[in-house]
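[Discussion] Sanity-checking designs against the backbone

I'm trying to build intuition for which residues belong where. Below is a structure token string of 926 positions. I'd appreciate it if someone posts a full sequence so I can compare it with mine line by line.
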């Protein structure tokens, strides 16, 4: 990362927030004797909503949820993917249990349940869910997903999704374990060693041994560590057995934070096996690293029987916690065998990746010698023999060109990759000549790098070329087809004019805005097929900083994101289909595929919205990107649509034309206090169309508009906001003539929840940062413009001069890698008798490291707020009204007991993670 730019937004940005909520208490035990009290647990909210179908994915038209609650009544609402309420109802609670049974059409939906006791709300919960058309896919479908090594219970969700390929790392060190398999030893500038000890153990036959002969000094240390994926806002219990000889005080410490803070001391001196236990509650982070750290003299220390569990669970999340795997000789496939068997049983083809280095060879660097390549080939041979008959294709390495998965002389070098590809290709083909060897596997299409690989002879040692055509966030995928055609042309150039298949084995977007990601998925998939790609794999299956098709929200709890439903629909529509035609007309995109069920056109617009007409002599079903279908009947030989960046499917070969006869527009932003939104309906017969008498139906309200032949009529109507939620919404409007719907129109509107009676404000809530200092995009000037951070007096200072649009976090090296404090001073005429509230409107947050803020009133106790992941683009893009940035807001109660007449102060500390971007903030009555 350039030190003068905000943290960039790529799957490759390995950045987590400085972790919030470290527990102050920890437990040290010696021989099982407790020396400190264990941490307490936080009670739940008395409401649990669980889908009757695992993963909240339902086949058919009904969705059922089982509810447990201490309340006496439940009210629920269902919203569609566009944010509109489509169903609502009540459920009776009996003996603490209730059922929410919803009949809804196909598509992506969100259920919200509100629990009340004696008429007062006590809790609420939400769950996304998807309703899909049942479908049995052929075994040779070209669609897959990157799955890593998921829990086996996710296989039904993979099958229901419709993928028939699963890309999975068959990592070398997992199959041929190094001495400290699963662990990372690291010595920096210290005279120290970290190694496997086969003679000393707490249990079993081995432990990790650390020796450090260097007295304490800056940046001199030795560590042994293991990173693991975690869930936000979850308490984890860390425990380890440690033994030591001649350990200086504080020379041996445990930590899990990425900044190595909140350290827990191990014993000092010489001591026998001692158990150290501590707890840690995560903030928004998705990765923790368990680390034993030595920064001073340690004669010798041994680590064994390490455990990391979710509090209340016995499941150890660590790999090789007892260091026994280092005793294994030869190859071991136990980690992968159950998954490969499960894939085969479910008709899913594995695409294993042979990847990375092994500490046993070439000094742990990427293979760069004949001996290292021979060892890599031997591991490849063993893997192909073990999974013979289950594996039909295999990739050689992963993103070798990028440099982030390679080290040493070979790092990123195409000549070294060509040599590794050759030896691996020969090894795989010697086992089974029918196995397809996939090479290249580049980050981006990397034409120059591929050319260098081919110049070094690589073309002869691959059957398929794969790539990962990622684009920046929040850029759209609209150039992917041309990029893939360039790859295919390069292949033909080096293969005597003959083609070889090209696959996209990774593509995804780390976007908090799931609807935008869903649209990009369909567009990226369609454009890949249009570019001649033979197989397409989405990255990723679960979580992974908003890349996932599924949310991981708790133990054994997964729910779909909009991208899951969008991918399922695309698979059902396009499996077995071939591209028949395509055209680009201004912002309009049209791709026609021909398949078993006839022709289907995939349509979208690169503009925010474009009104179009489709000629037809029959009724057409328009299917939106998550599967909801609308039947349109032609009026005067045409049906009418609004196309957006979210593609739709229509079974027609007709070309859409712009400037449709019917349209609807809305103001870009309204406030909940407005209670209505004014929509403007248009009937345009100025092109000579016959008279029309139609009804526009928006949010349940009908508005009739009549226009004579040749006349253009606009009519405004106020529509209630009651069925829209705060945030970004899309209003879907039906246009009907008589008993038939003839049009489906869409318009976006932002609903902002802005309270009345502001007592102090900074900026105006409007989904822009234009009225704030340094906006939009001059983040690099922050350290010089605000060297002491921000202090702002409401009613006195000018936001354009005194309140920075961006507040950096500790992860931001360009702003000093520290906590930054923003201070808001405001005056009250009298001491309030009731609480006030601080409402903070954010334009965007970092997508992978949103982190936390601490809010305090008048130097009192701070309230920690965990921020949602945003788009990561808001540092440079000053408006959410016409871009993919992801606004959010949070509210903090300001107790009347701590407010006073006269001067008051609120401080906002960015305590972890990367930057946030402000829209506005204010003090309001509660």
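Best answer:
Here's mine. Compare freely.
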């Amino acid at each position: 990362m350039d030190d003068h730019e905000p943290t960039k937004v790529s799957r490759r940005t390995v950045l987590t927030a400085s972790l919030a909520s470290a527990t102050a208490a920890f437990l040290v035990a010696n021989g099982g004797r407790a020396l400190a009290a264990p941490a307490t647990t936080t009670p739940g909210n008395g409401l649990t909503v669980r889908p009757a179908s695992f993963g909240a994915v339902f086949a058919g038209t009904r969705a059922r949820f089982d509810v447990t609650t201490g309340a006496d009544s439940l009210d629920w609402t269902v919203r569609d993917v566009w944010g509109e309420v489509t169903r609502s109802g009540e459920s009776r609670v009996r003996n603490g249990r209730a059922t929410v049974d919803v009949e809804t059409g196909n598509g992506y939906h969100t259920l919200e349940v509100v629990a009340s006791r004696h008429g007062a709300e006590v809790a609420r919960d939400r769950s996304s869910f998807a309703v899909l058309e049942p479908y049995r896919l052929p075994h040779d479908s070209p669609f897959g997903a990157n799955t890593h090594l998921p829990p086996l219970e996710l296989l039904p969700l993979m099958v229901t999704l419709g993928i028939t390929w699963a890309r999975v790392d068959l990592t070398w060190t997992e199959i041929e374990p190094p001495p400290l398999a699963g662990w990372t030893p690291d010595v920096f500038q210290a005279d120290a060693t970290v190694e496997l000890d086969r003679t000393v153990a707490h249990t079993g036959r081995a432990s990790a041994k650390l020796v450090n002969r260097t007295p304490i000094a800056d940046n001199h240390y030795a560590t042994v560590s293991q990173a693991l994926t975690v869930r936000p806002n979850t308490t984890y219990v860390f425990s380890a057995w440690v033994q030591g000889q001649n350990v200086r005080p504080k020379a041996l410490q445990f930590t899990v934070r990425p900044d190595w803070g909140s350290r827990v001391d191990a014993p000092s001196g010489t001591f026998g096996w001692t158990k150290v236990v501590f707890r840690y509650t995560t903030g928004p982070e998705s990765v923790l690293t368990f680390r034993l750290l030595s920064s001073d003299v340690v004669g010798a220390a041994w680590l064994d029987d390490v455990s990391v569990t979710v509090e209340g669970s016995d499941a150890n999340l660590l790999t090789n916690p007892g260091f026994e795997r280092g005793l294994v000789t030869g190859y071991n496939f136990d980690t992968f065998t159950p998954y490969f068997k499960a894939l085969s049983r479910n008709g899913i083809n594995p695409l294993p990746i042979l990847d990375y280095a092994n500490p046993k060879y070439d000094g742990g660097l990427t293979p760069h010698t004949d001996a290292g390549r021979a060892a890599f080939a031997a591991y490849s041979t063993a893997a192909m023999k073990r999974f013979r008959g289950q594996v039909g294709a295999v990739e050689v390495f992963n993103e070798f060109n990028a440099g982030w998965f390679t080290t040493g002389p070979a790092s990123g070098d195409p000549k070294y990759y060509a040599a590794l590809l050759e030896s691996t290709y020969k090894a795989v083909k010697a086992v089974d000549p029918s196995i397809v060897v996939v090479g290249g596997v580049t980050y981006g299409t990397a034409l120059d790098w591929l050319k260098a690989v081919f110049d070094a002879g690589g073309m002869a040692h691959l059957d398929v070329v794969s790539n990962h055509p990622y684009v920046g966030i929040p850029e759209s995928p609209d150039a992917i087809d041309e990029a893939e055609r360039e790859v295919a042309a390069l292949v033909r150039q080096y293969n005597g004019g003959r083609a070889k298949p090209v696959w996209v084995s990774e593509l995804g977007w780390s976007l908090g805005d799931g609807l935008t990601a869903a649209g990009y998925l369909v567009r990226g998939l369609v454009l890949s097929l249009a570019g001649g790609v033979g197989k397409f794999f989405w990255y990723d299956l679960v979580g992974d900083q908003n890349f996932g098709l599924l949310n991981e929200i708790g133990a054994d709890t997964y729910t779909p994101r909009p991208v899951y439903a969008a991918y399922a629909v695309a698979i059902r529509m396009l499996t077995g289909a071939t591209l028949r035609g395509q055209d680009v007309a201004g912002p309009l995109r049209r791709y026609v595929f021909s398949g078993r069920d006839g022709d289907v056109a995939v349509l979208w617009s690169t503009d925010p919205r474009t009104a179009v007409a489709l000629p037809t002599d029959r009724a057409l079903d328009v299917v939106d990107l998550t599967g909801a279908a609308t039947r349109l009947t032609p009026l005067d030989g045409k049906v009418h649509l609004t196309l957006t960046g979210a593609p739709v499917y229509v079974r027609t070969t007709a070309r859409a034309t712009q400037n449709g006869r019917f349209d609807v527009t809305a103001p870009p932003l309204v406030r909940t206090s407005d209670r209505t939104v004014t929509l403007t309906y248009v009937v345009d017969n100025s092109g000579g169309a016959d008279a029309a008498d139609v009804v526009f139906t928006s949010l349940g309200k009908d508005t009739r508009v009549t226009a004579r032949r040749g006349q253009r009529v606009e009519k405004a109507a106020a529509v209630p906001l009651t069925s829209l939620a705060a945030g970004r919404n899309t209003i879907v409007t039906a246009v009907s003539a008589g008993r038939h719907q003839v049009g489906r129109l869409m318009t976006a509107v932002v609903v902002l929840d802005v309270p009345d009676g502001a007592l102090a404000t900074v900026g105006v809530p409007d989904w822009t940062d234009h009225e704030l200092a340094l906006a939009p995009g001059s983040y690099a000037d922050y350290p010089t413009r605000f060297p002491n951070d921000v202090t702002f007096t409401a009613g006195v200072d000018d936001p354009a001069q005194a309140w920075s649009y961006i507040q950096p976090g500790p992860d931001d090296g360009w702003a000093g890698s520290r906590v930054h404090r923003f201070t808001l001073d405001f005056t009250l005429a009298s001491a309030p008798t009731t609480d006030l509230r601080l409402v903070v409107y954010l334009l965007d947050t970092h997508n992978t490291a949103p982190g936390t803020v601490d809010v305090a009133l008048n130097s009192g106790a701070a309230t920690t707020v965990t921020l949602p992941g945003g788009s990561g683009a808001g540092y440079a893009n000053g408006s959410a009204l016409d871009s993919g940035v992801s606004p959010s807001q949070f509210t903090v109660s300001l107790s009347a007991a701590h407010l006073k007449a006269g001067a008051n102060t609120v401080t906002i500390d960015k305590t972890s993670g990367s930057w946030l971007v402000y829209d506005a903030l204010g003090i309001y009555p509660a």
